[in-house]
Design goal:
CATH topology: Arc Repressor Mutant, subunit A
Largest sheet: 2 strands, antiparallel
Strand content: 5-15%
Oligomer: single chain
CATH superfamily: Winged helix-like DNA-binding domain superfamily/Winged helix DNA-binding domain
Length: 130
């Protein structure tokens, strides 16, 4: 698993919203040092993934759709970067057969890696990072 900049910025934006409660795109962009146009795309995806909601009006912006302690890092990473597993052959949600299945001991190691990473990211919420 390797996080893209989009995922990293999404995490920063969610942390910002958890701290502020509600914030305008310009404010998030400035305070988190996220390019404005890129942030607009990220916020649109976060809204489609039901992680944030938009607030209308002259002082509108965005806020978390759920409490920060109900949004795990695993959910954010999967929303933008897909599987947490190092290979699709051991992925729980994105399984695809792969060459490593020919070597059960090797496959077992990658399952352990998947389990460790998954457990840590599932247990860590946006609230934990505020």
């Amino acid at each position: 698993m390797k996080l893209t900049h989009k995922t990293e910025y999404a995490i920063l934006a969610l942390i910002h919203l958890a701290r502020e409660g509600e914030s305008q795109t310009e404010s998030i962009s400035k305070e988190c040092d996220i390019p404005f146009k890129f942030l607009q795309q990220i916020l649109r995806e976060l809204r489609l993934k039901q992680l944030v909601t938009s607030v209308r009006g002259p002082n509108g912006g965005f806020k978390l759709k759920r409490p920060a302690n109900k949004i795990s890092l695993a959910e954010v990473v999967r929303a933008f970067d897909g599987p947490l597993a190092p290979t699709s052959a051991v992925s729980v949600y994105f399984y695809e057969p792969g060459p490593l299945e020919a070597e059960p001991k090797t496959l077992r190691v990658f399952k352990e890696v998947r389990d460790f990473v998954s457990k840590k990211l599932e247990k860590t919420t946006i609230f934990d990072l505020v």
